[in-house]
Amino acid sequence: MPKTRNATRESLEHQVQSALKWLKSHSTKATLDGMARYALPSDKALGVAYRDIKALGKRLGRNHELAAALWDTGVYEARMVASMVDDPALVTPAQMDRWGKDFDNWGICDTMCFNLFDRTPHAWVKVTQWSSSKHEFVKRTAFALLWSLSVHDKRAGNELFVQGLALIERAADDERNFVKKAVNMALRAIGKRNRALNAAAAAVARRLACSPNATARWVGKDALGELTSPSVMRRLALRADV
Predict the structure, then answer these.
(1) Cut 0.85: pTM above it
(2) Where are the domains of the chain?
(3) What's the pLDDT at 112?
C-alpha cells in the first residue's frame, strides 16, 4: 500500500511539473508585462494568455487531486488551471474558504467563481457568508459569485436573487475598488435575468442612486443606466419568463 501511495504522489507531482513546463513554454514577456495594466500581480505569474490557460485546462480534464496540487504551487496560471480541472461535486466548503483566503487579485477571484465555485452545491451559502467579509477579495468573491450565478444557475428561482439584491444594497457603500465593481456587476446581472428581477434590481439601483454615500450612488447610477436601457428592455420583452 505505501508503494501505491508513493507512486500516486510521484504521478501527481509529474503531472504538476508537466503542466508548469507547458505553461512556461507558452509564456511571453509581453503578456507578463501587460498584466499590470489590468491590475493583475505578476510576481507569481508566468505571463500566459488566457486562451492558452484554457487550452491546458481542457487538455487535462477533471481531476480534483491535480487541481489541489496546482493550487498549492502558488503560480497564477496554475491556479487558473485549477479552476478548470477541479470537480465541483468534490469541492468542500472548507476548500472554498481556504482558497478564497489566498485570493489576491480580481482575475483569480472571478475565474474561480465562473469556472468552479458557481457549480458547487455550496455556492449560495458562500454568497451570504462571504458578503460580510472584511477581506477585500473574499468579499469580492461573494458578489462575483452572485454575478456568476445570475448567468449560470438556470434553475434558481427569483427569491434567491431577491435575497442577493438585499446583500448588494447592504454592501454598496464599500468603497474598495474591487468590491464596489463586483457589487455593481452583480446588480446589473440580476437585473438582466428576467423582467421581474429587472424591476426589483432597478428599484434597488434607484435607491442607491439617491444615497448620501458617493460609492453607493455610483453603484446605483451606473447599474440603472444599463438596467433601463432600450437594449435590455427589448431583450427582456422577448423572453417568456417574468
Answers:
(1) yes
(2) 1-86, 96-242
(3) 98
For the beta carbon of residue 171, count every other beta carbon within 10 angstroms.
21
15-55: pLDDT as tens digits:
999 999 999 999 999 999 999 888 898 889 999 999 999 99
In this predicted structure, what is the pLDDT of residue 39?
Answer: 87
| CB proximity list for 80: less than 8 A, separation 6 or greater | 50, 53, 57, 107, 108, 111
96-242 adopts what CATH topology?
Leucine-rich Repeat Variant (1.25.10)
> Do 184 and 224 contact (CB within 8 A), yes or no?
no
Cα–Cα distances (Å) from 90 to 77, 109, 118, 144, 193, in that order, read 22, 19, 13, 21, 28
Show Cβ contacts of residue 113 under 8 Å, excluding neighbours closer than 6 positions.
141, 144, 145, 147, 148
- In the block, residue with C-alpha cell 507547458: 22
State pLDDT tens for residues 177-196: 999 999 999 999 999 999 99
**Nearest Cα to Cα of residue 95 among 76, 112, 75:** 112
24 CB-near residues (< 8 Å, 6+ apart) = 46
